[in-house]
Design brief:
Shape: globular
Radius of gyration: 19 Å
Distance between the termini: 64 Å
Number of strands: 0
Strand content: under 5%
Helix content: over 70%
Length: about 170
């Protein structure tokens, strides 16, 4: 697809009103709050769940790319995006939760630029873009809040129950 064709495609895409944008972003925030509640209630590590959710959200667009006029190219682009954000999630496990917060803040920019205003808007539902952006922003803000309070340190891999580091009973 040439640049001129991409501009024409973006000009013909459905644009949402500001009220619709806020409404769908609020739906994403509600889903983020649900994930936070489930993580806290179930005693799960929220940064790990948020990372998995980011990878899953990126993977949705691979399937949407199959419905485009050029499915091989778009699916390849979206699989590359999954690899980039998946690498950032993995890097956040090795370093700091701030890498995950940055990834969760960068993903909505990608979504709005490519899937709402760009050429991918022809095969991506606009409500999904803003719901996903609201979800990512909600998780990023909550993880940043926890990080500033010093809480979301990733839990190390646990040892099997009843074993110590030397192999004997506890």
């Amino acid at each position: 697809m040439t640049l001129l064709a991409a501009e024409r495609a973006a000009a013909t895409a459905v644009m949402l009103s500001p009220v619709e944008i806020v409404l769908f972003a609020a739906v994403g925030l509600i889903f983020a709050a649900g994930l936070i509640v489930v993580a806290r209630w179930g005693g799960r590590n929220l940064p790990h769940l948020a990372g998995y959710a980011l990878i899953a959200a990126c993977s949705i667009y691979v399937g949407l790319g199959l419905g485009s006029d050029n499915p091989n190219s778009w699916s390849a682009v979206e699989m590359t995006v999954v690899a980039v954000f998946g690498s950032l999630v993995f890097l956040s496990r090795l370093t700091s939760v701030w890498v995950l917060v940055a990834a969760l803040l960068i993903h909505p920019v990608w979504l709005i630029y490519v899937h709402y205003m760009g050429a991918a808007s022809l095969f991506t539902p606009a409500p999904l873009v803003f719901a996903n952006a609201g979800f990512d922003l909600g998780l990023a803000l909550y993880l940043a809040f926890l990080a500033l309070r010093g809480q979301p340190a990733p839990t190390p891999a646990r040892e099997p129950a009843g074993r110590s580091r030397k192999g004997g009973p506890r």
